[in-house]
């Protein structure tokens, strides 16, 4: 459904479909554990669905917005990242490389914001196809790189400093994004851009200082 609306140019509706996919991505695992119906093939089908929801859909939105096919390789790198995650034993409590569930909302939020506010500075910057191409290339690199990205799988468990402070810092950044969005009257999709950008930048800074 998200792909249909993306092809029609209804980027906000496509973004909502992506968010719904994210919700069901969480609920399917919860339901499988509740019904004791988890299986190895279920894990593979979950990743296959993620390729469509968080790989192909954001790529289609970028291509539709920029009117160029150049960002298509982002879908291929998303598929590679998901395949790598399935066979990488190091990613039980955290991620190695940017998760697709962070890259996809960033792309969707950016396209929705620019299409809803075509006269904004952000829209004028990303109206150039080469800017969209650079963004897709950067995200593709982050998806398959060896940079650690913390996850929320360990919430509720005892963690030592600095692991315990990382989610708290992100929460503070997200609250700041919410306040700025409300005060400045930004489009709601700015929340997606702000949340995911805060997550990406925080992890890059932590990796740079080896924290």
Write out the strand line-up for the largest beta sheet, numbering strands in chain order.
1-2
Which overall shape is indicated by the principal axes computed on the Cα atoms? globular
Number of helical elements:
9
Average pLDDT: 91
- Main sheet: strands, sense, barrel: 2 strands, antiparallel
Number of distinct beta strands:
2
Q: What is the distance, rounded to the nearest whole angstrom, between the alpha carbons of the first and last residues? A: 41 Å
Q: Could you estimate the helical fraction of the residues in percent? A: over 70%
In terms of structural class, how would the helical and strand content be classed? mainly alpha
**Regions with pLDDT < 50 over 5+ consecutive residues?**
none
Measured on Cα atoms, how large is the radius of gyration? 17 Å
SSE arrangement, N to C: HHHHEHHHEHH
| Strand percentage | under 5%
What does this molecule look like?
The protein has 211 residues and is mostly helical. The protein has a domain at 2-147. Helices cover 71% and strands 3% of the residues. It contains nine helices and two strands, in the order H-H-H-H-E-H-H-H-E-H-H. The chain has a two-stranded antiparallel ribbon. The longest helix has 27 residues, at 40-66. The protein is globular. The mean pLDDT is 91.
């Amino acid at each position: 459904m998200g792909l249909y609306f993306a092809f029609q140019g209804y980027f906000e509706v496509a973004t909502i479909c992506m968010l719904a996919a994210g919700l069901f991505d969480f609920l399917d695992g919860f339901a499988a554990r509740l019904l004791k119906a988890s299986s190895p093939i279920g894990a593979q089908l979950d990743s296959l669905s993620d390729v469509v929801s968080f790989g192909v859909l954001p790529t289609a939105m970028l291509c539709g917005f920029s009117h160029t096919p150049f960002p298509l390789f982002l879908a291929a790198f998303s598929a590679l990242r998901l395949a790598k995650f399935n066979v990488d034993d190091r990613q039980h409590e955290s991620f190695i490389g940017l998760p697709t569930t962070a890259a996809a909302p960033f792309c969707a939020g950016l396209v929705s914001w620019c299409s809803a506010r075509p006269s904004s500075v952000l829209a004028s910057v990303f109206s150039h196809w080469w800017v969209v191409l650079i963004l897709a290339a950067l995200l593709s690199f982050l998806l398959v790189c060896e940079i650690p990205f913390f996850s929320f799988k360990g919430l509720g468990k005892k963690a030592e400093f600095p692991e315990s402070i990382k989610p708290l810092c992100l929460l503070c950044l997200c609250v700041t994004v919410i306040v700025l969005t409300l005060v400045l009257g930004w489009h709601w999709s700015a929340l997606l851009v702000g949340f995911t950008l805060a997550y990406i930048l925080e992890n890059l800074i932590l990796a740079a200082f080896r924290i």
